[in-house]
Amino acid sequence: MTPPTPSPITQEAARILAEWAGLPAADVAADLPAVFEAFRDRVQRLYAIDVETVEFDFLRPTE
Amino acid sequence: MTDYELGSLTIARAGRLFRTRALSPVELTDAYLARIARLDPTLRAFITVTGDLARQQARRAERELARGRQRGPLHGIPITLKDLYWTKGVRTTAGSRILADFVPASDATATERLAEGGAVLLGKTNLHEFAAGITTDNPHWGTCQNPWKLGYIPGGSSGGSGAAVAASLGLASLGSDTGGSIRIPAAFCGIVGHKPTYGLVPRYGILPESWSLDHGGPMTRTAADAAAVLHVIAGHDPRDPTSSRRRVPAYARALRGDLKGMRVGVPQNYYFDIVDPEVERAVRRAIETLRELGARVVSVRVSGVEAALDTCFVVAWAEAAHYHRRWLSTRPADYGADVRSLLEGALLYLASDYLQGQRVRALIRQSLQRVFEQVDVLASPAAPLAATPIGQLETEIRGRRVSVLDVGARLTCVANLTGDPACSVPCGFTKDGLPIGLMVHGRAFEDATVLRVAHAYEQASPWSAHRPPSPISP
After folding, report:
1. In this structure, is residue B400 part of a structural domain?
2. Is residue B471 included in any domain, yes or no?
3. What residues does B436 pair with on adjacent strands?
4. Looking at the predicted structure, is the pLDDT value of residue B385 above 70?
5. Would residue B337 be called left, alpha or beta, if left means φ above 0 and alpha means ψ between -120 and 50 degrees?
6. Buried b / exposed e across B239-260, counting CB within 10 Å, b at 16+?
7. Which of B14, B66, B67, B363 measures 20 to 30 Å from B384, CA to CA?
8. What's the rounded Cα separation, in Å, for the pair B145 and B41?
């Protein structure tokens, strides 16, 4: 079994990112590096989808 | 009333008993309050029981009915509300510590409409903290149990509502649904849960999770009861800018049609890719029943739907993080660990990430619109699995380790992205006695069609008559 790849986001990096995002830096959750990474993976999967044909429709009517 | 009599009651039946004076709203309310007092210490389906208010509303309904005044199908009917709906003078916690003492100065639109319809409020139900999860394992208000099997989750986030309806602690509840939070607990608890079309039920006074994905809707024993509740709470309210101005049809009347000629689409991709074999068997049998009822079953492909879960996740959590930003910086320790981690992670999403999510969402919506040119409804599992043990974050489906949160919401979230109506109706049980839900997903504003299919299936199958083991005991 391949050992898990160490996260490129260290606890210190996560702390800095959290502070940047407006969170109290002294009190970030221990699993934040893993959470940041999982969130980034999910977004990267979305960026793999071609959306060039989509006109953005924020003001679409609901009727 | 005996437990057996309460267990066999529906809104429609209670209304008939009121009319013939065989049962009174006060008698029924007292029976439910006694049952709540007995069972809820085990189930933890409630955050607040509103006994005094319920008795007062029941007495009023009884007086009005005795004088011949009929407010409609919910007159004198005991119901519950997910503790996300504002209730004037009654605390509305969102299942959180942060809002533990929040007492709204006014009612949500839906709360107001239920009261005008003569419904009796038994209490506010437990939920996953801030509706941000599907287990209802709530660190602040207690872990809600599945009435079918203690030690198992009821689903969520409207888990208390699902457990309350299933355990006969009220005849209906209102839940909210951002990625499946009405339909997942409905499937796990063996009841009907209907997520209406976006904009049909005003959201004024429903605490938000994600503005572009949130929906409020009914959780009931039967599709006919869901139709009765939907009719009362649907319709335009200018206080909700997303509220539709369309006329509300008579949903109860729409249930009467049969399924002859109805085109039922069965997706060939995605929807059955990661599904527990017992769930798949039950759902395919249910689709066969729809065919026997006269529906034309059509195979369809829903292109691009594979991105639904990621899209829903990014959009929902980005919007939720925005709503929670102030509390995340001032009161982080007041969140439960799971919700806090996810909200903090979502604060790092870029505006570009959110917009990518919204554009992928538009592609999925276009894809579903093309599918609905070929068929009237889609049929699939509501959730790819049955309820899981409390505290278990991962499970195995066909030899594959999957996250309970991800797999639980992967099918329901599609209709949140599109805004279409979708309903979960009971369609069987696993060998462990846990309920399974069939999901019927239809075109926007065709809630009546979705409920008609659910009702026709329910009439042709035995599942809605099943009740959790009673008395509930470990």
Report:
1. yes
2. no
3. B428
4. yes
5. alpha
6. ebeebbeeebbebbebbeeebe
7. B363
8. 10
Number of folded domains that form chain B:
1
- Which chain B positions have a beta carbon within 8 Å of A14's beta carbon? none
Within the 203-242 window of chain B, which residues sit less than 8 Å (CB to CB) from chain A? 242
Kindly give, in sequence order, each residue whose CB lies less than 8 Å from that of residue B288, ignoring residues fewer than 6 positions away. Answer: none
Measured in degrees and rounded to the nearest 5, phi and psi for residue B408 equal -60, -35
User: B164 to chain A nearest CA, in Å?
Assistant: 33
Does residue B341 have an active-site annotation?
no
Sign of CA dihedral B88, B90, B91, B92: negative
- Of the listed ranges A2-6, B6-10, B56-60, B380-384, the least confidently predicted one is A2-6
Pick the closest to residue B123 from B166, B162, B192, B169 (CA basis): B169
Could you tell me whether strands B120-125 and B78-82 are parallel, antiparallel, or unpaired per DSSP bridges?
Answer: parallel
B342 in Cβ contact with A16 (< 8 Å): no
pTM here is 0.96
Scanning every residue of chain A, which has its alpha carbon at the shortest distance from the alpha carbon of B418? A62
Contact residues on chain B for A39, CB-CB shorter than 8 A: 317, 345-346, 348-349
**Mutate which of B213, B335, B347 to disrupt the A interface (most A C-beta within 10 Å)?**
B347
Give yes or no for a cis peptide into B468 (omega within 30° of 0): no
What are the chain A neighbours of B333 within 8 Å (beta carbons)?
27
Options B82, B124, B149, B195, the catalytic residue: B82
Residue B424's Cβ-side half-sphere holds a number of Cα atoms within 13 Å equal to 35
The full set of domain ranges for chain A reads 11-47
Q: Give the residue numbers spanning the domain of B333.
A: 3-465
Write down the number of H helices and E strands in chain B: 16, 15
Strands B78-82 and B172-177: parallel
Confirm whether B105 is domain-assigned. yes
Give the span between the Cα atoms of A1 and B80, in whole angstroms: 50
Distance to chain B for A19, nearest Cα, Å: 10
